[in-house]
Amino acid sequence: IARGSKAGRVLVGAQVAASIVLLAHASLLARSVYAIAGVDSGLTEETVIVGFPSPLINGYKNLDVATHYRQALDRVKAVRGVTAAAFSTFKPEGGAPPRDTVGRARTPRDLNTDAQAEWAQVSPGFFDVLGIQMLRGRDFSYTETEQGAKVAIISADLERQVFGEGLGLGQRLRVSARPEWQDAEVIGVVSNARVFDVRSNTRAIIYTNAIQSGPASHYKCLVARAPESAVPGLRAAIESFGVELFRRTQTLEYVRGRTILQERLLAGLSGYFAVLALILVSAGIYGLLSYVLSLRRKEIGIRMALGADARRMAGGIVSEGLVLTMTGIAIGLAGALASVPLLRSVLVE
């Protein structure tokens, strides 16, 4: 009987420890979701429609990229309710684009000045749509063609890392190892914003004019600052050229919600199992103490008959449960601290 009671104590203590670990994980995941939802992405709070044109068969064959997309945006902007529109090769807040090395042009590669940055190809007007402030310089132009000198716009954070704060405008930089991007002029510096991945802490971004990439720059998505009621007009404007279909649209708010869906699910499941563990622990402690009391019934009766104080007897029994619980909590906290590094990949801030 004594061995059974001892085994029960160990089992309940382990349950308490496990529930503390689950509670710690659930609270960290919930706080991470809260941090993501409350982060200032640096983008406009107005409704932004994100649409995804897809080519018809041979739709992009012999297409003049610069002319087509300029005309397409002119028609999109003429749609009622649209206040700004642009194209991008990556979906805003839908996941980070590829990262690459950015450094000063005409200098050897230097780990002290080179920076890892997200590289996005966008059309003129992209910053206006998303509410990204132009701090210095100018936006892209449709006159900047594939054959012309390469230009780039960088975020303030990337400017600080490569050139120093306030010193980037007019400088020349190299991007990646691609020969055509070894000497690009910085024509603008924009405010920091979590444009493509709201979970990312990096705000080092280099934007290039997608028109300068020629046929390789066929845009993946249209972004337009407009109410959802403008979607039929956007579809008609894009499809009127007979080059692309415009089937799927989302709001930027919806895209942001989908981006953090994994974190929400993890936090919800962890919270559910943590609460379930607490219920099981409570039942386990109650059951163990009831079992121990049933074994000591005669002993307690004899002590009471000899004049033992009822409150002291009750206090001693309760203290057993408290000692068991506190021991499990202490072990659980130690386990939680030790296991936190395992969650780093899914935590934000």
Describe what you observe in this structure:
This protein is of the alpha+beta class and 349 residues long. It has helices spanning 2-38, 65-77, 126-130, 156-162, 231-239, 252-259, 261-295, 297-305, 310-339; strands at 48-55, 84-88, 99-104, 115-122, 134-137, 151-155, 172-175, 184-190, 205-209, 221-225, 244-251. Strands 3-4-9-6-8-7 form a six-stranded mixed β-barrel. A hairpin with an 8-residue loop joins β7 (172-175) and β8. α1 runs antiparallel to α7 (261-295) and α1 packs across α9. The longest helix is centred in the first third of the chain and has 37 residues, at 2-38. It is elongated. The two termini are 50 Å apart. The relative contact order is 0.22. The model has no long low-confidence stretch (mean pLDDT 81).
Task: List the main descriptive attributes of the protein structure presented here.
single chain; 349 residues; alpha+beta; four-stranded antiparallel β-sheet; 11 strands; elongated
Summarize, please.
44% of the residues lie in helices and 19% in strands.
**Average pLDDT figure:** 81
Query: Approximately how much beta-strand content do the residues carry?
Result: 15-25%
The largest pleated sheet is described as: 6 strands, mixed, barrel
- The dominant shape is elongated
- In the sheet with the most strands, the strands line up as 3-4-9-6-8-7
Instruction: Specify Rg, calculated over alpha carbons.
Output: 31 Å
Count of helical segments? 9
Summarize the helix and strand pattern as letters: HEHEEEHEEHEEEEHEHHHH
SS-based structural class? Answer: alpha+beta
Spans where pLDDT lies below 50 across 5 or more residues: none
